[in-house]
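Troubleshooting log. The previous structure file for this entry was overwritten by mistake, so regenerating from the original sequence record. Sequence copied from the archived sheet and checked twice against the printout by T.R.
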Amino acid sequence: MSESLKRNYCVGGELGRGRFGTVFKCYSSATGELFAVKSIDKRLIADDAIDRQCLYNEAKIMHLLSPNPNVVRVFDIYEDDTHLDMVLELCNSGDLFQRLSSQPIFSESDAVDVMVPLMKAIAHCHRLGVAHRDIKPDNILFTDSNELKLADFGSAECFHEGQLMSGVVGTPYYVAPEVLAGRNYSEKIDIWSAGVILYIMLAGVPPFFGDSASEIFEAVLRANLRFPPRIFHSVSPAAKDLLRRMLSKDVSRRFSAEQVLRHPWMTSNGEIRTVAPF
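Regenerated output below.
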């Protein structure tokens, strides 16, 4: 951890640990205000140019996206010879993965309370030319006042309108089929991942699954979206309509973030039972 950080912040207990860095709670020496600090040991990535680029991209992208009410805000960045430290907004109330573990199935109104701020965060990223590329429940955090914050931009990439990206990124259950197929792809991979999250909230199970990573990938590539009646009997037609539009294998037919936000299920707080054709 850099000495310049320690001059301005008092570092406390560990909050989490990743591949290259550790997140700690900290507070400002001047104001006492609480933050999180993500401290990355640059020595761990000294020999890997791609990982090193991802590290610097994350700091640059988070700075570009801040401030936004639904994206974890970066306040300060410190760097010395061995560490890169990012002082971040503190999200002290867990993540969506933890909430799904304790409450496997959400009501539609609870699901929409997650989806609206999540899609606002994704729309903000896409408007600024940033694809997150690893949308999953672990990266959706909550503050003490229950505000949703999209986090972890370590896999994110900047793009220009109409420009395609490449590279296999993401997490098995949530990754879009065009990524697994090795094709170039657009920012709509984030819509697919958010659609998987919505399906899991409403069903308690992922839409495409298997007993191993390779089986999951095969199921994602087939993209055979189903709504088993025993699970979806009480889910509204409007919710299923939105899922079809987010989990469309045909990227040209898949909704954008702005289209998702305008969908009747999103604008009616999940209470609409039918949906007019688009």
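The chain has two domains: 3-88, 96-267. Archived copy saved in two places this time.
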